[in-house]
Amino acid sequence: MKKYVWHKQSVSPDLEIIDCPVYDPIKDFRRDPTGAYVLIRCNIKNSFIEVSICDKKHTILKTFRGRKAQDLYYTIFEYEKKHKLEWFKRKDHAAYLGKELKKAEFGLSGKEPYVQE
């Protein structure tokens, strides 16, 4: 087994390396148990990324605007926590938000149009 060396970290003697299977966005998709989902778009005219939180009845509950992915997801998660909401129970749902916001941030630059997956 190859010896893994990190900058200053030690490595556990029972380190396990796990090869990840390819994620299938159709077969492996699981909706958040809350039913909440997000709509993301680039408002190029006003230089904003807009994130709308929708409930399972397809009603837009809140819309957040910002220019950077990190500003948006941080604000959304803090708002959710402060108001004792549960929009993102699944970690993969939160990870999806971060991934899509980074793509939207790139799209906001105008170099490539953003299309939400």
Provide the descriptors you would attach to this structure in a database record.
single chain; 117 residues; alpha+beta; 3-stranded antiparallel beta sheet; 2 helices
Give a structural overview:
There is one protein chain. The chain is 27% helix and 18% strand. The longest helix has 18 residues, at 91-108. The chain is α+β, with helices and mostly antiparallel strands and 117 residues long. Strands 1-2-3 form a three-stranded antiparallel sheet, covered by helices on one side. The chain has a domain at 37-108.
The largest β sheet comes out as: 3 strands, antiparallel
Structural class: alpha+beta
Give the ordered list of helices and strands. EEEHH
Binned, the helix content reads 25-40%
Q: Are there runs of 5+ residues with pLDDT below 50, and where?
A: none
Average pLDDT, to the nearest integer?
A: 91
Number of strands: 3
List strands and helices in order, with pairings.
Elements: E1 37-43, E2 48-54, E3 60-66, H1 69-82, H2 91-108
Helix pairs in contact: 1-2
